[in-house]
Amino acid sequence: MDNREVLVDIKNLRTFFYTEDGVVPAVDGIDLTIHQGEVVGLVGESGCGKSVTALSIMRLIPNPPGKIIGGQIFFHGEDLLKKNEEEIRLIRGDKISMIFQEPMTSLNPVYTIGDQISEAITLHQKIHATEAKKRTIEMLHLVGIPEPEQRFSQYPHEMSGGMRQRVMIAMALSSNPELLISDEATTALDVTIQAQILDLMRGLQKKLGMAILIITHNLAVVAEMADTINIAYAGKIVESASAREVFKSPRHPYTYGLLKSIPKFTEKRTNEPLPAIEGMVPSPYHMPKGCRFNPRCPFATEKCREEEPEILELTPGHLVRCFHPIEP
Amino acid sequence: MRNYIIRRLLQLVPLLLIISFFIFITLSLTGNSLRSLLTSNPRITAETITKLERIYGMDKPLLVRFVYWFKAFFTGEWGYSREYHDAVLVLIKARMPVTLALMGLSFLISVAIAIPIGIYSALKQYSLLDYAATALAFFGMAMPVFWFGLMLMLLFGVKLGWLPLGGYSSQGMDTANFLMRFLDHLKYLIMPAIVLGLQEMASWTRYTRSSMLEVLRMDYVRTARAKGLSERTVIYKHALRNALIPIITLLMLAIPGLFGGAVLTETVFSISGIGRLLYTAITTSDTFLSMGTLMVLAILVVIFNFAADLLYAIADPRIKYS
């Protein structure tokens, strides 16, 4: 993995939201590396800051109330946070694209899907409308939409959720991006459609070779696709390793808890309830002192309640933010 | 779509029948206008009234009278105005252009001011200009039309002398060319048009603002930004088109309301249009004239309701009529 060139390098990213009720440290020191052509998973519960990380890369944090207050996001070695609005605009949708969770609402209801895809193409590739149309139909074909010529002039409401997500993917890939960010792109879909879309994304990744950042709360989604997995908790990365490592020997108690709570069909059925992580995600307004996971952690000690652990490389390529990592 | 339009047009006839029936009943409840002549005109005798009643068919039952009237109305016989001593249709036709010009100008001014302000207020929410627009909108909604009209007349007509105080055109304009006549009318109509549209303008500002704010939070606006489109394209292509869908209906349905407002505005600015005609007709119990003018209003209401539905379908591809 490491012999490939680094595409995105996020260093100590901090994105806060300033609400009437107080400051929400949605992302509080996230580090993340994505190599060229690598599929990286970012996994965590709702509110752990994974979507905010994605929107920070795109520089699409709604301001107010949100603001990126610190850190760097290097893309090809250049800090995206130092770019002005015009420069970042030309990267968005061209070199870095994003697909979102809600295919039902992510497309504009009053324009045809052909219109919406070719709009992105003409913008970034500076080509003529007729050529853009040809390219759009190619893209629709590529993402497995039947009869792309007819679909070109259809409106989003004339399509199913799965088809719309395919349209979103076609739009995102139309300019051959180097990074595709998929923010819970399959969450809102039926499981069968979900599998189809994941298959499609995997196939396109092989074909086109772009890097993908998959953001999900569903470990099963990244299990099949990701090369590297990052586990986020309360605005920080708590564990980062290759997908194999994470599933084989999780070192952080939170990752361990997540994996334990997945029902396994291979095991003999018992009447034991499925294990769950005790307690709740901390309120963003009242982050616990010390390690943020300590109130829910079965291994927490006095030290965990006082001091915040640094993220450390325990074995080559396996990073864990814990004073008492689980022994493999 | 074509079938829908035809069906809707055919529905207009029974709809107008029902509306006119209610207007007829309501007007007949105000009393027998011929009988009231006994108190207002000392030279008239009871026998003359009875005779007149027979001539006008007032001795017939209400329903029969209505059928006669509707048949005549349908064939273009709108009756004779006692007050103006002329055919109702002729009176209405003569005054229609003024009122339509007034309504049209008022509509254009209101839209041209309200929608940009609404958009700006939404884009710069809680800015000084947003607060100022909000304050002005509430001022506009709360302002009584007749008083505001009088204040404008006092300022621009009397104190500054920039605009004429009332009427519709200057003397000797009949021979001037089109442009001169147009500018002349504009000078007379600008003040009443602003007065007439003030309340709609104020509320449209608010509606545009809230519609725009709602749309700006939508996922597809984020998608548009994620594509790398410029903020201008995001707002004016992707957000505005969606934000205007509910506004279109609002605008269309407000047009008949402008007609109602014209009654007051034309009276304050002494413009001899349909509004003032209706005012005179009602205050002098001129039944045929009242019926005729109220029917014009009814037709405007049904037509613009229909227009609202059609435009809605054009603006929003999700709406399909069959």
UniProtKB/TrEMBL annotation, chain A:
<dbReference type="GO" id="GO:0005886">
    <property type="term" value="C:plasma membrane"/>
</dbReference>
<dbReference type="InterPro" id="IPR003439">
    <property type="entry name" value="ABC_transporter-like_ATP-bd"/>
</dbReference>
<comment type="similarity">
    <text>Belongs to the ABC transporter superfamily.</text>
</comment>
<dbReference type="InterPro" id="IPR013563">
    <property type="entry name" value="Oligopep_ABC_C"/>
</dbReference>
<dbReference type="InterPro" id="IPR017871">
    <property type="entry name" value="ABC_transporter-like_CS"/>
</dbReference>
<dbReference type="GO" id="GO:0005524">
    <property type="term" value="F:ATP binding"/>
</dbReference>
<dbReference type="GO" id="GO:0016887">
    <property type="term" value="F:ATP hydrolysis activity"/>
</dbReference>
<protein>
    <submittedName>
        <fullName>ABC transporter ATP-binding protein</fullName>
    </submittedName>
</protein>
<dbReference type="InterPro" id="IPR003593">
    <property type="entry name" value="AAA+_ATPase"/>
</dbReference>
<feature type="domain" description="ABC transporter">
    <location>
        <begin position="8"/>
        <end position="259"/>
    </location>
</feature>
<dbReference type="InterPro" id="IPR050388">
    <property type="entry name" value="ABC_Ni/Peptide_Import"/>
</dbReference>
<dbReference type="InterPro" id="IPR027417">
    <property type="entry name" value="P-loop_NTPase"/>
</dbReference>
<keyword id="KW-0472">Membrane</keyword>
<keyword id="KW-0813">Transport</keyword>
<keyword id="KW-1003">Cell membrane</keyword>
<dbReference type="Pfam" id="PF08352">
    <property type="entry name" value="oligo_HPY"/>
</dbReference>
<dbReference type="Pfam" id="PF00005">
    <property type="entry name" value="ABC_tran"/>
</dbReference>
<keyword id="KW-0547">Nucleotide-binding</keyword>
<keyword id="KW-0067">ATP-binding</keyword>
<dbReference type="GO" id="GO:0015833">
    <property type="term" value="P:peptide transport"/>
</dbReference>
UniProtKB/TrEMBL annotation, chain B:
<dbReference type="Pfam" id="PF00528">
    <property type="entry name" value="BPD_transp_1"/>
</dbReference>
<feature type="transmembrane region" description="Helical">
    <location>
        <begin position="178"/>
        <end position="198"/>
    </location>
</feature>
<dbReference type="InterPro" id="IPR000515">
    <property type="entry name" value="MetI-like"/>
</dbReference>
<keyword id="KW-0813">Transport</keyword>
<protein>
    <submittedName>
        <fullName>ABC transporter permease</fullName>
    </submittedName>
</protein>
<feature type="domain" description="ABC transmembrane type-1">
    <location>
        <begin position="96"/>
        <end position="312"/>
    </location>
</feature>
<feature type="transmembrane region" description="Helical">
    <location>
        <begin position="135"/>
        <end position="158"/>
    </location>
</feature>
<dbReference type="InterPro" id="IPR035906">
    <property type="entry name" value="MetI-like_sf"/>
</dbReference>
<feature type="transmembrane region" description="Helical">
    <location>
        <begin position="294"/>
        <end position="315"/>
    </location>
</feature>
<keyword id="KW-0472">Membrane</keyword>
<dbReference type="InterPro" id="IPR045621">
    <property type="entry name" value="BPD_transp_1_N"/>
</dbReference>
<comment type="similarity">
    <text>Belongs to the binding-protein-dependent transport system permease family.</text>
</comment>
<feature type="transmembrane region" description="Helical">
    <location>
        <begin position="100"/>
        <end position="123"/>
    </location>
</feature>
<keyword id="KW-1133">Transmembrane helix</keyword>
<keyword id="KW-0812">Transmembrane</keyword>
<dbReference type="Pfam" id="PF19300">
    <property type="entry name" value="BPD_transp_1_N"/>
</dbReference>
<keyword id="KW-1003">Cell membrane</keyword>
<dbReference type="GO" id="GO:0005886">
    <property type="term" value="C:plasma membrane"/>
</dbReference>
<dbReference type="GO" id="GO:0055085">
    <property type="term" value="P:transmembrane transport"/>
</dbReference>
<feature type="transmembrane region" description="Helical">
    <location>
        <begin position="12"/>
        <end position="31"/>
    </location>
</feature>
<feature type="transmembrane region" description="Helical">
    <location>
        <begin position="243"/>
        <end position="264"/>
    </location>
</feature>
